[in-house]
Specification:
Blueprint lengths: L20 E4 L5 E6 L5 E8 L13 H8 L9 H10 L3 E6 L4 E8 L3 H13 L5 H20 L1 H13 L14 H4 L4 H11 L6 E6 L6 H7 L24 E6 L5 E11 L6 H12 L5 H9 L6 E10 L5 E12 L3 H18 L3 H13 L1 H4 L3 H13 L6 H11 L2 H11 L6 E6 L1 H9 L5 E6 L1
Parallel strand pairs: 2-6, 7-11, 7-12
Antiparallel strand pairs: 1-2, 3-5, 3-6, 4-5, 8-10, 8-11, 9-10
């Protein structure tokens, strides 16, 4: 009997984050495209220069309503017809507004890329923004706000941003607006924001997927290239500043059986040379079930199901300035609030005194670098990361360089970065829980003045 030869593994090749190619369409739209063989679901991300800071006074949330309304019909299709065309193309279209920009994301099979790009281009070029759909989106957002107020995690984030940032800074207010501002949004306001900010000359398109046999740039010219607009200068982002004086804010929820914790400040963002070391150190502190915070608060003390530390970029400027939110988040049972905080501060002080171990550093590097090929296995994940780089004024090879740095960083560098990120005396602590139970024990910890506010 003759058997087919047993397959043999090939020589492994080093993995690196994909490098895009660049082009510019006739309408001024910047294009980054990346050929990913085998990725038959093509991802297209549009970064629109419409920052939340540009929203008119009293209309916080209008950018979010505009983003949601982009898929509610065009000059040739009603909302229902547009949704039907997307479905027939096997495509999905999502959009959201954040502090730096409005992001619109399309995923469509490569075989129907032209139809998907046409629908996307029409949404950007001539959205219908029908009055009835705007009113529905406003009503939906008002309902969401009620639910967000009842969600401890969302409520803690709202309180932390309001505490850290000055009232005049758009960062201090909810991304999608408050009930008072959203209820004033109407079609003329949405149309005005669209007219002022949605234009190709200051926008970028990221296209990732299997582009075999696709003459991409001519295809983009006949689809996204039909989108026109003014050639105004790009937005200028104000520097990010915050007051991280150590203090505690308790959002009172009488009768709550748990306390939501959110401890934060601002620190280096992706433009800072310490970013990779900060990623590594923050992961060792609270990035996984084996991190220091989890080992103590979850495994040893049983206070929580999990605590995480993270760094979230806020907004960047073209000159490379920017800041990130550095935070620790989790929830504990009400009676354990003060003990959990005491142990957290002990962990931070011990970290400053003794540093990370080589074993902690090695485990973190193995995960962060080792999981990268899986993390970026889809076209959508690659496109989203490239769009992040565009949004934050980063070079095209930024992500690849971060992974190279992570693999080479030593334990001392990671320790230095995480200790600088979380100084125990410069942290703002937000607690969402029963103030009558937790306020006095927290005051006794001496981690900052305690203020109690209503939910």
């Amino acid at each position: 009997m003759t058997f087919h030869p047993q397959p043999r593994p090939g020589t492994p090749t080093p993995w690196a984050f994909p490098a895009p190619e660049r082009a510019t369409l006739a309408n001024g739209l910047t294009v980054l495209h990346c050929h990913r063989p085998g990725q038959q679901l093509v991802a297209v991300d549009i970064v629109i220069d419409a920052p939340l800071a540009a929203e008119p006074e009293g209309l916080d949330g209008v950018a979010n309503i505009l983003a949601r309304a982009l898929s509610e019909g065009t000059d040739t299709l009603t909302a229902e017809e547009y949704a039907g065309e997307l479905e027939r193309a096997g495509a999905t279209l999502d959009a959201h507004a954040d502090h730096p920009a409005i992001r619109v994301s399309l995923e469509v099979p490569a075989s129907r890329l032209e139809r998907g790009l046409t629908l996307l281009g029409d949404a950007l070029r001539a959205p219908a923004l029908p009055t009835d759909e705007i009113e529905r989106l406003v009503a939906n957002r008002l309902d969401e706000i009620v639910h967000e107020q009842a969600n401890p995690a969302r409520r803690s984030a709202k309180a932390l941003y309001a505490t850290l940032f000055d009232d005049a800074d758009r960062l201090s207010r909810p991304r999608s607006g408050t009930a008072d501002t959203v209820k004033t949004i109407d079609r003329p306001a949405v149309q005005a924001f669209y007219d002022a900010h949605v234009r190709p000359a200051t926008a970028s398109a990221v296209v990732v997927g299997d582009l075999t046999g696709i003459d991409l740039i001519p295809l983009l010219e006949t689809t996204l290239g039909r989108w026109t607009g003014s050639t105004d200068a790009p937005s200028v982002h104000a520097p990010v500043t915050a007051d991280d004086t150590g203090r505690v804010v308790i959002v009172d929820r009488p009768g709550s059986v748990q306390t939501q914790l959110l401890i934060g400040r601002i620190g280096p963002d992706r433009h800072d040379p310490a970013w990779a070391a900060q990623i590594l150190g923050t992961y060792c502190l609270g990035g996984t079930l084996t991190s220091r915070l989890d080992r103590v608060l979850r495994e040893e003390k049983g206070y929580t199901y999990g605590v995480r530390s993270f760094a979230q970029p806020l907004r960047s400027a073209a000159d490379g300035s920017g800041r990130a939110l550095l935070a620790i988040s989790g929830s504990v049972d009400t009676a354990s609030t003060a003990p959990a905080l005491a142990d957290t501060w002990t962990i931070l002080r011990t970290l400053a005194a003794e540093g990370l171990t080589d074993a902690e550093r090695e485990d973190a590097v193995q995960f962060l670098v080792g999981v990268a090929p899986l993390k970026f296995e889809t076209a959508g994940s690659v496109a989203a990361t490239l769009a992040d780089q565009v949004e934050q004024y980063l070079p095209d090879d930024f992500q690849a360089e971060v992974y190279r740095e992570l693999a080479e960083l030593g334990t001392d560098a990671a320790t230095e970065a995480v200790v600088a990120a979380f100084p125990p005396d410069r942290l703002v602590t937000v607690l969402v829980g029963d103030a009558s139970v937790i306020a006095e024990p927290v005051k006794e910890l001496g981690i900052g003045d305690v203020t109690v506010i209503a939910n």
